[in-house]
Amino acid sequence: MVTSSYQSSPQLPMHPQRQRLSLRPSSQRASSAISSPHPEDNHGEADELLSQEDADALNEIIMAIDMKENGARGCTLGCAYYIALDEALYLLEDVAMAGVDLVETLLLYAKPTTVLISSRASESLADCLARAAQGIDGNRGDLPGAYILRNLNSADFRYDTGKDKLLGLDLEMAGRQSMLYTTVVDEGIVEDDHGGQEGSRQGRLMRLGTSVNLDSQLTVGCAGAVLNDLHRRKTAQYLPNDPDALVAYKIRSVEMFSLFDFMFVNADTFASLQILQSEHHPNSHQQGGAKENLSVYGLFHHLASTPQGKLKLRQIFLRPSMDIDLINERQQTFSFFLRPGNAESLMNLGKYLRKVKNMKPVMALLRKGVDSPGRKISVNNHAWATLQRFAAYSLQLREMLRELQGAEKIVIIRKVCEIIDPFPIGQVGELITQTVDFEQSIERARTAVKYGVDAELDGLKQSYDGMEDFLTRVVTRLRDEVPEWARKYVKNCIFLPQLGFLTVVSLNTETGKGNYDGEGLNDVWERMFAAEGCVYYKNGKMKDMDAEFGDAYCMIIDREVEMIHGLTVRILEQEDAIIAASEVLGELDSFVAISIGCGQYKWTAPKMTHENVIHIEGGRHPLQELVVPSFIANDCAMAGGLGDYDRETPGVSSSAASDGLHDSVDCPSTLLLTGPNHSGKSVYLKHVAIIVYLAHIGCFVPAERARIGITDRILTRIATRESVSRNESAFAIDLRQVAFAMNFATCRSLVLIDEFGKGTNSQDGAGLLTATLHHFASLGSERPKVLAATHFHEIFEGQFVEESAELAFAHMDIRLDYDAGTPEDQVIYLFQLVPGRSISSFGSRCAAMNGIDQAVVDRAETIMLHMVRNEDLEVVCSQLSEAESQKLAAAEAVARAFLEEDFGPPPGITGKKATDEWYQTKLQAVLSAGDRMPDATSSTT
Fold it and tell me: Half-sphere exposure (CA, 13 Å, Cβ side) for 274?
């Protein structure tokens, strides 16, 4: 009689790291991508789809920069960079008369992870790039977002090499060409499957010339350097026959870009105005990353919901436009979302956008094969669930936008509705829903296929799921065949992948063998292995079952891999549509974030104009007003020179005069601010520039009303970014910033100068500031708009700078109360801009407010008074005070009395004691002469 313990169900194979569970279909399944938009709602967010190695590769941005000196004509700059996630190569139009400031702008523009320069690069370029590069130990440089700097052989930057590399690219568009270009020197050209042009160099050159300006020789050379670096990376990381090498560092498109379509803003301006200001992440687990510090961009960064939306938002802030139509289009979009009737829809858009992920890394993952060996991706972050949810929510977002009243007039909404095609996107979601079993995928830690998709797979699964009962019957018959004494040792029969069917016998601990190994049977029991008190045997019956049923488990896996591969191929057919939908939703997300921010901060839409003016009413500093109890708003009215409007300027209409240009000629082009320390001069300068900047990204501005003319550059001398790696003094950095503004400012530029000249002696500083202001005023119709602040009151006292139609004075108003008991209460700051100039910076009062001894403050005020009167300080400081004069007079009286007194032998007095008393009386009389002086102090005694 066999005990019940022997009849227990056999153990099925263990999945690595997990218990193998049933393959039977789940009772609940979603029917479509649209009806079930939450395939992974209970599985967390799908943020980390890639391994760290793959993520690092996709985040690579490789930039090459080259600069060539042209003598008196300055330097020409070329640049190219590759974005791995976009699989795109971007080439800059060669820029003439460029400097290192433009290099810093390019670094901010592209945020490279690796920068390549030529071994023949100039010292100024190498030093500029080295300051922000990572050190040998991996530490970051002075700037956030530091990169790896690599020096390459100058041959890598040759123009011919770069052109040949570009011609050798197998771009996707090449296969879509239908015209054959031939020349008299192209012999033996035979059309092939790739458009018939592969044999024609001239044809490839003509095709390349349609997308690349081959006259930008430095940039073409930089492109060759980038392509060489990509080839070296691929060679080092992949074996020759590795299939992953086919998709690694692939280039699908080549595009030209130009910085002239945007307002020029260099790194100094970004730092001074706090437009973007990243800092190292304090979390030790995120070392090497960065978080956004208090900045204008940081006001909106957290409002974006998607990764691609945050990236697009950053691009908007990095690239202020000079296209007034684009600016007005964005303003119209933000105004539409901020309508009271759309408030709830705006919140719902943000809620649904948070469930949409960036599809570029997902599609990259699919191209590499989501089930490739060794790849560990949990279903919580699974590509299929992410894709299904993207398909569902993107279609829901499309329908939500279409239902908004007046949506047909908004460009971004029309763009979303046109790009997100319900058929391919819905098909993707439907395919995934019908194919992938998400619950089984969780249990098995790999992608599982649903029942009903493939009859062969269903049959294999049914056979495998019925194997438990089958093996129970097999072990029962086997026990009947073995001798009766051995029946208790035969535990069960099991199936293990790769090994097939096995008979399990209990282990004899004394001998280390099985308690039974086939004695009494005409069969060979082959010992396979021992584990957990049992010995596993392969015998004739097990071999017969192997031959009849095969390795069902591996057959299931193989079939599912085939099914998933087929699904991947069908999904990749819609790759362009999916990525386009992801990108347009990122753009929508950035607009929604800006709209929400503008509503939260109560900003208003500025009026953009071709007039060269800045008219602001009730302007505020967007950061300062968040950290103070109350903020005093100020106005600004400025107009730049008329300029030559017959020339065509990117983004600026030649018909600007019809916009009322001459109505603003009464406004000054230069506004010179004075006022005490802490009165708000720097904040005023910055808030005007920030409002102009925000207006050019199409954003609302922190002001009651604003009319902003198209501005091509914002140039600043505000912050001095010192570093031990710079071979420059603080004053030299200030001079370089002002020189850059002088050389590159146009009538459309805004120049900010805050306390220029303070780094040297006051005479030189005052002279430099005066000359700078005269320089800008002398430009006539080409004069820029200049906002300056200074404490050099001597330039006014000497009438070196006078008010005129182009130059106006203003100061930050204060009130003085000398009767106040404490220094802090003697100066009352009103933070209000008023016309005219201040007579003093009240530096001594500020010193008293900050704890400087009152005696020091009084002495400083006395010296400053003499300086204002232009008196000789050496003579003034050598004069005695009244008390000192009295002491000197008393001392003189004593000396005269001493000289007049007769100290000869005392007449008629003998004895030492009497003689001493007589002399003592004489000396007391001499000393008392000082006491008889008017107001003589007792200190003379």
Answer: 17
C-alpha 430/C-alpha 32 separation (Å) is 5
* Burial class, 383, CB count within 10 angstroms (exposed 0-12 / middle 13-18 / buried 19+): buried
Of the candidates 323, 320, 317, which has an alpha carbon nearest to the alpha carbon of residue 298? 317
Phi, psi of 627 (to 5 degrees): -120, 5
139-160 tens-digit pLDDT? 444 444 578 999 999 999 999 9
Burial class (CB in 10 A: 0-12, 13-18, 19+), 741: buried
- Helix crossing, 411-419 with 324-337: angle to 10°? 80
Whether residue 882 is predicted with pLDDT greater than 70 in this model: the reply is yes
CA distances from residue 764 to 356, 718, 734, 760 in whole angstroms, order as listed: 59, 19, 14, 7
- Residues 61-96 have pLDDT tens digits of 999 999 988 766 678 899 999 998 888 999 998 888
CA distance 326 to 332: 10
Domains, the chain, ordered by start = 53-175+199-260 (3.30.420.110), 609-811 (3.40.50.300), 882-940 (no CATH)
- Going by C-alpha positions, the residue among 736, 710, 708, 739 that lies closest to residue 721 is 736
Classify strands 534-538 and 526-531 as parallel, antiparallel or unpaired: antiparallel
- What is the rounded distance in angstroms from the CA atom of residue 244 to the CA atom of residue 672? 63
Cα–Cα distance list, 782 to 201, 550, 641, 709, 748 (Å): 48, 87, 5, 15, 8
pTM (predicted TM-score): 0.75
Structure token digits, residue 208: 């390349």
Four-point Cα dihedral 118, 75, 646, 318, nearest 10: 50
531 phi, psi to nearest 5 deg? -165, 140
212-216, 294-298, 464-468: least confident range: 464-468
* pLDDT tens digits, one per residue of 741-784: 888 899 999 999 998 878 777 788 888 989 999 999 888 889 99
**487-532 confidence digits (pLDDT tens):** 888 888 888 877 888 999 998 888 888 888 888 888 889 899 998 8
Residues 6 or more apart in contact with residue 627 via CB below 8 angstroms: none
Half-sphere exposure of 257 (CA within 13 A, CB side): 17
Run of H or E including 549: helix 540-549
